[in-house]
Design brief:
Keywords: Repeat. The chain has 580 residues and is mainly alpha-helical. 58% of the residues lie in helices and 2% in strands.
Length: 580
Amino acid sequence: MEYSHNFNPGSVAGGGPGLTDQQQAIQMAGTTTTTSMTGSCDGTTMSSPYYSRTDLSMTNCIGSSSFSAPMDDCSSGFQSTSISNYPSELPSSASTTINEYPPQPMPSSSQQQQQQPHPLPPPTNTANNSTHIYQLSKPLPDDDPRGVIEELGRYISEDRDTVVVLHSVLVLFTYTVNSVETRQQLSASPATLSSLYNLLTEGNFNNDSDDSHVAILHFAGATLEYISRYPEGRTALLGCNGLESNDWPSRGIKTLISSLKSVNSHVVVFAIQAIHRLLIDEERADNAKKQIIYAGGVKCIVDQLATQLVDLENIGQFKVVVMTCLQILAYGDMENKLAIYESGGPGLLLRTIRENFNYDPNLQPQADELIETASRVLKSLSVCPSNKDDIIRNDGIQLLTECIKRDNQEILKTCLWTLRNLSDVINNNLSNHNRDVKLLVERLLAILSQYLEEPFILSCALGIMANITCNNEPIKQFICEYNHFTGIDLLLNTIDVALLDYDFRRVNNEADYKKIINEVLEPAVYTLCHLMNQAHYPRLLFERQRVKERLTGDPIKNLKLYNAGGDLEKAYRKLYDLLD
C-alpha cells in the first residue's frame, strides 16, 4: 500500500492521464510556443488510512482515566494499565491514549518513475489570472541549456526591466520542465535559486496587481514547485548544497513559508505542494520538519485552513494537502501539537468537517476525503491534553458522532479512535455536552450490533463506553434503559461473540487469539462493572440477576473469564463480586 495518491487530472483543463510529467507541468504552469500559462501543483496526498501491525504504540494516558475510576465505581484495586503489546491494529484498554499511526513516506525513486504526478488544479479565475497571455515567441534551442542557467539568474536578480525579468523567469521555468540537465543544474546553482527566492520574498512584485508582476511571481513559484518533484530539487530547497549550506532554516524553506502568506493564489498553491513533497520524502522528512517548524511554518500552514482562495478551482483538494502536512508535522511531536492548538487548529479542522456534512451528492467522494483527512489530524491531536479540551469545546463530540454515522468505514475507524482518546476527559465537560454524550452512547450501542466481526471498531466503541460510564449515573441508566432495556444485552452479546468465535481475527494460534479478544473483553467487562454499580437505579437488582445468569450459566464461559489472567481477570472477578 503506497502513501501517495494522485489527484484526478481529468478536472484540469488540458490535463489528462496520457500526458507525460513534462507535458502536464507545461500545461499547468508554463508554456512553450503554443502553451498558455496557468498554475500548477502536483497533488500528492495520503491514501486511505490503514492500521499498521508494527507502528501502533500505546502510552499511558496523561491525566485521570476512567478505568482508574474513583472508589465508588469498579476500579478499587483494579487500576488498568496497557494490557498487551500485541502487534495488531487493536488499541489497548480504554485507560490509555492511543498514539497516532505514522504518515507514510514518499515512494522510492523507482516507484516515483512509474507514477506520473497529476497536478493540483491551480487558481483559474480569469479575471485575476493573466499569465495565459505570456508565451515564448519562438521555440527554445535544442542545445544543452546548462550554460544559460547562471546568466538567467543574473538577469533575474540584477535587471530592473520587468519585461526582461519576466522573460528570464519564463525561459528558466520552461527549460526546467523540458530538460533533466537543466533541472539538475538549477538545483546545483544556489545563486540562480537565490534570485528566485528574492523575487518571492523581497516584495517588489508582491501585493501588486500588475499583470506582468503577477506572472513573474507565478513562474518563480512554479519553478520551485517543479524542482520539488525530484530528489535533487528537494535537497536544494533544504539548502544542503553550495552557498546555502550554512543557512538554517534554508532560504528555500523560508521562501516557501513566506509564500504561504502571499495574496497570489498561484504562489500559495505552489508553496504548499512543495512543502508537502518535502514532508513525505523519507530521506529528507526529518530535516524538512525541523526547518519548517523553526521557520514558523506550523502556524502558516494552519492559517491556510481559514484562507478562502476564491479563485482556486478546487479548494477541497488544496485543503486535503494542507491537512496532510499538518498530520505529518503533528505526528510524534507534542510541541507541534501545541503549536497547532495555539493557532486555532482544532476549531478550523472541525469547521472543515462541519462544512462538508451538507454536500452535493455529486461531490460526496471529495467531502468524504476532506472529512477523513481532517479526522486524521484530529486523531493525532487527540493525544494532547490541551487539544482534547479544545476539540470538546468546539463541539467535537457532536461532530465526531455525526461522522461515525456515515457509511465510510475509514471515517468511522478514525473518528472512533479520536473519540476514544477524548473519552477520558469527556466527563469533565459533561455539564455543557450532556445531550451530545447521550447521542454518542446511542450510536456506540448501535455499533455493537452492526460490527460484531470488526474487532478494532468494537474495541474503540467499548473503550469509549468504559470511560464515559465511570461515575456517570445518568449515562449508566441511559445504557440500561436503551431500546427497551437492551443496552446490557448488546454488551453481553459482544462478550459471547468474542469468546466463541475463534476465527475472530483469523489468527492461527491460541496466544494471539487471547491477546485479541482481551482488547474487546476487557472494556466490555469494565463497562458492565460500571453499570452494575449504580446507586439509584430501580432495576439494578433485576439487571444484576440477568447478567449473572448470562455470564455464569455457561460453565465454560465463566471459567474462561475467571481465569483469563491480567486486567481482564481482575475486572471479571470484580464484576462477579458485584453480582453476588
